[in-house]
Design a protein that fits this description.
heterodimer, A: about 130 residues, mainly alpha, 3 helical TM bundles of succinate and fumarate reductases, elongated, B: about 120 residues, about 75% helix, globular
């Protein structure tokens, strides 16, 4: 690869991942965890969609997604996706618009509020077929 | 938190492009990923998106392009994010190399599988 695997400019772990324990620390952690979970789902999702070459296999695997446990999982995926998207927009704003830095805390509040505001009705729509069947 | 915006380093290193790529692909994925999720989970129920649904949708080459762009950008964005996570938590050079090799081969393999799935799907 021609460059050192551990970049010399990188500070040790204890300081590299710490924003002094304030709200930015939680935003960072939430971004990292939600991104990691969405990525794991993406890997799984590419495998299950690749089965579309064999229609009956695809449909058999696909039918599992209607299960209530997987519906709950999809609601979780929606929340992770919404938080990661909105917080990502907050990061872009902070990086590209100098004026946004002073408002980053309030923007994080908006990120959380919008995640809940969009996630709850979205989650309801995903769970509705199960709730109707009760 | 620092109270000044972080200026990208002047020297355009690989990590600068990596930083820039995450912002650009992220912005594209706001559209691609959310539209995809809305179509497959909100507008349609997930059980309706069976083989027939995929076949009908992929009749249109533009949907194939949409899905391929989502595949490529989401994989690259996610793999680069996981590379950052590996860099933070796997500090020993040998282990870091193994973890990176595993990440790159898995992502590459799935990119190939996804690309072939979209490309070779019969019309």
């Amino acid at each position: 690869m021609g460059r050192p695997l551990v970049r010399p400019s990188v500070t040790p772990l204890k300081t590299a991942t710490t924003y002094k324990g304030k709200s930015g620390q939680w935003a960072f952690l939430g971004h990292r965890v939600s991104g990691f979970l969405v990525f794991l789902f993406l890997l799984l999702h590419i495998v299950d969609v690749s089965m579309v070459r064999w229609p009956s296999v695809y449909d058999e695997i696909h039918a599992l997604y209607g299960n209530v446990l997987l519906r709950l999982f999809e609601v979780g995926l929606l929340f992770a996706l919404l938080f990661h998207t909105l917080n990502g927009l907050r990061i872009v704003a902070v990086d590209f618009f100098p004026g946004a830095v002073a408002r980053e805390r309030r923007m994080l509040g908006a990120v959380v509020a919008l995640t809940v505001l969009a996630g709850v009705p979205g989650g309801y729509v995903i769970l509705k077929p199960f709730l109707d069947g009760l | 938190m620092s109270h000044r915006p972080v200026e990208p380093p002047v020297r355009r290193s690989f990590e600068t492009w990596s930083w820039f790529f995450m912002r650009l692909s992220g912005l594209a994925l706001v559209f691609l990923a959310l539209v995809h999720f809305a179509i497959t989970h909100i507008v349609n129920d997930v059980v309706e998106t069976d083989y027939r649904f995929v076949a009908d949708r992929w009749e249109n080459p533009l949907w194939r392009l949409f899905d391929w762009a989502l595949l490529a950008l989401a994989l690259a964005h996610g793999a680069n994010g996981l590379r950052w996570i590996i860099d933070d938590y796997v500090r020993r050079p040998r282990r870091q190399m193994v973890a990176r090799a595993a990440l790159y081969s898995l992502s590459g393999l799935l990119f190939l599988a996804g690309t072939l799935t979209i490309l070779l799907f019969p019309t």
